[in-house]
Amino acid sequence: MEFLEELLGHGMWIAIAVAILVFLLIFFRFVPVGLWISAWSSGAKVGIFSLVGMRLRRVTPSRIVLPLIKLTKANIPIPIAQLEAHHLAGGRVDAVVNALIAAHRANLELPFERAAAIDLAGRDVFEAVRMSVNPKVIETPMISAMAINGIEIKAVARVTVRTNIQRLVGGAGEATIIARVGEGIVTTVGSAATHREVLENPDKISKTVLAKGLDAGTAYEILSIDIADVDVGRNIGASLQIEQAEADKKIAEAKAEERRALAVAEEQEMRARVQEMRAKVVESEAEVPLALSEALRSGNMGYMDFINLENRKADTKMRENIGGMQIDVSATPVKK
Predict the structure, then answer these.
(1) Cα–Cα distance measured from residue 316 to residue 319, given in angstroms and rounded to the nearest whole number
(2) Cα(85)–Cα(119) distance, integer angstroms
(3) CA–CA separation, 303 vs 196, rounded Å?
(4) Which among 159, 219, 254, 323 is placed 20 to 30 Å from 292, CA to CA?
(5) pTM for this model (two decimals)
(6) 222-281 pLDDT tens trace
(7) DSSP labels for 28-59?
(8) Distance between CA atoms of residues 157 and 225, nearest Å
(9) Contacts of 78 (CB under 8 A, 6+ apart)
(10) 62-98 per-position pLDDT tens digit
(11) How far is residue 100's CA from residue 126's CA, in Å, rounded to a whole number?
């Protein structure tokens, strides 16, 4: 009996030890004690139950606590609930925290709500803050414009911009800046009387384009516009005149061909009419012998009348032959 009591006593202690071990395993599984100790040692007040709640909400505690430690060391008071809410919304907590710290160091006004909105909009909020401190240079492609005298000018501009954090959400991007600067260069060059004016004063383009306020409605603020390269291109005016002359030539040739075709058609029509008249004459001449025969049979015409008609036809033919002969005067003998 004593042995059984002793055995039961040992089994109870083993069960208690196993229960304690299981509890510790579950506790350390849901509660990152090392992370909790790091937070408290750095001054970030994080409760144990907050870490347990993150586990239950399937939030990795390190993604919230480590950025909170950064904010605490930078003296930026942000509640941990806002960080967790931004993470649950699909945001990048670490990028937002880095942007807040960079803006705080650069004395830029950037509330957490605006930084979170910029991040949720799909923009790199940390890069935006860096561009606000360190402006970015955007180089436009080769822009072709034509002066009033018809000479083409090719220019490349470098646009220095910095981020306008207040307009970053909903503002236009770099493509809009490049398009507007290109439009301003085309307008400025197009208003110049000659291409020499542009080559002599390229800064005129920069000043005119910069004065147009091209950064309105964009996420950037234009600091300067510099013309990096200016070249003279084709004589577009002369090319257009040549093309116009070629077009006029083709139109004139088409009209001449139309008139020629019309004349040929009229000539063919006239020939057809002549052939038709000749056919009618031949047809009429073919009816003469029939009429003569009918007149002889009916007695309207005598035999002597027919002989006289034939004699007159012979005389007429002889006169026509004589009239068509060419007399050679040099062969005629001259009487002395």
Answers:
(1) 5
(2) 13
(3) 106
(4) 323
(5) 0.55
(6) 888 888 888 887 777 777 778 888 888 888 888 888 888 888 888 888 888 888 888 887
(7) HHH--HHHHHHHHHHT----HHHHHHHHHTT-
(8) 7
(9) 68, 71, 97, 100, 112
(10) 888 888 888 888 888 888 889 888 988 888 988 999 9
(11) 8
